[in-house]
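@channel sequence for tomorrow's demo:
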Amino acid sequence: MMLFGYKGKLLHLDLSKKTSKSITIPEVILKKYIGGRGLGAKLYWDLISPEATPLGQENIFMVLTGPLGGTMVIGSGKHVIITKSPTTGGWLETYSSGRMTPEMKFAGYDGLIFTGKLKDLSGVFIKDNKVEFSDADFLKGKGSFETETYIRENFHPDCGTLSIGPAGENLLPIACIGSDYFRKAGRGGSGAVMGSKNLKFIAIKGSGGINCVNMQELHKLVLKHQKRVKFRTSTPMTMTFTNSAGMLPTRNFSKGQFKRAIGRIDIEAVNKVKIARRACYACFAACASITKIREGEFKGITLEGPEYETLAMQGANLEIDYLPAILKANYLCDDLGMDTISSGVIIGFAMECYERGILTKEDTEGLDLKFGNYKAALELLELMAHKKGFGAFCAQGVKKMAKSLGHNSEHFAMHSKGLELPAYDPRAGWSTTITYSVTPRGGCHRRAWPPLKEVLGGVNPFTIKGKAEMVIELMNERCVIHSLLVCDMSNAAVRLKISDWAKYLNIVTGSNYSKEDLNYHAEIIETLIRRINIREGFSSKDDYLPKRILEESHPDGPTKGKIIGTDNFLKMRTDYYLCRGWDSEGVPTEETIAKYEFDSEPTIKI
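structure tokens (generated this afternoon):
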């Protein structure tokens, strides 16, 4: 039977045995879980044991795409990595873009599944149905940039690539995975899972194509939406409104505004060093900026970026207003293979502990970790990646650091479930507390983006009324996008709705989904992922935020005197649970489980 959009197969690679085989995905599973994030939830539930440890051989590492991946649909060059998180010990999904998705589809697969562990540091080359393992010991300790250059020079210049740097080899819970040099699956420690399997890189090249039901109609719809792009989105623009709203994390989230950011590390400053734009595969949004430092101590550094999150967490959160230093930090993290968000939060936490006297210069091995000291911050990034001295202590993440340091430092250790918080302070938009706390991978802004409503959309940010329903609506929309699998930013640039994505899905696959259907499938996926984390040992106690966020106010700015309060937070969280069909402790009810027919669907085996 010919499939449209989908390939209907996964490639399973057993690293211990160095063997591979294709696995057929039941069509009923594709229809129910769509692809990407949804398919990953089903695979995680069926294949990853609760007893598996994140860095153990029994953990499974998956790279997945969706039914729209590799087509001409805008933003369809995304892939998702799904595994058990070294950061939280539970569900992890982390996204990136580049050639991986189209080449996986061209090679005939909807995804790759890696099990076991290689004996020595190695790489894997995939060409259609041919798999080759190769020694990569000579790349040990090398960064992602050098590794990817080796792949392109020795395999194919246009292949899909995934690679890790020293942070992944050293199993850091903040290690990321690189693709297309500057694209990163950044959050949750997926790079450490690759490292734990002695997998330095993955390269794939396909020679096939993708069948679409109605290519003519698809082309028309793409051209129609291309005309909607009135301006090129760029995430550094975000700093303008977060700073104005008191939402910009500053000085380890103790403030919500960084006045020195304006004109120095915001979009105005980035535009001064921008030399080009770059688009992902099949995208006319072209939101990426290529920047270059033309003078000073970091002269010559060229990279794709920085994104808003990096400007905020490596800049404002550390009270660093020197853009070249932030670009240097961005470059280091990308090459060493570290998440710029988590590493920025970690350094901010260390700086506050240092200024409070909880950490001394003896503890930091001579690093003068005062806020604003970019030289110390850059040195600490390298120490973290190589797991050396004080850097090894910081590389654990703020949750473990606070537990070790004591002195009530857990009150300002900015994380949820162990994953450091991103660059939107919830005190300027209270529904963000729901997003950060209930999101299954930990502190995260990508499963829903409430600032769209509370800061840009006119919804009162300082009330709890209706916030649970609002977050669910936003979260379901993202769930659909991340299952199809297309890009958040291109979606924002063209301003598409779930009904538009239903049209794309139907034109490509020949299905007949409505927006209501896709919303229903999002509910199924969210509930299954909740069941996964409950099975992993999580409970409502883990859906929580630091005291600084819930019980403290900013000292100045538009959020001065605005305290969320624990009771308000718990009310919003309970409302969210109940709206999902879960009980007051966040456990899906028997009625909800029966409604979604989890027990009657086929089990995927490898």
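heads up for whoever presents: The mean pLDDT is 96.
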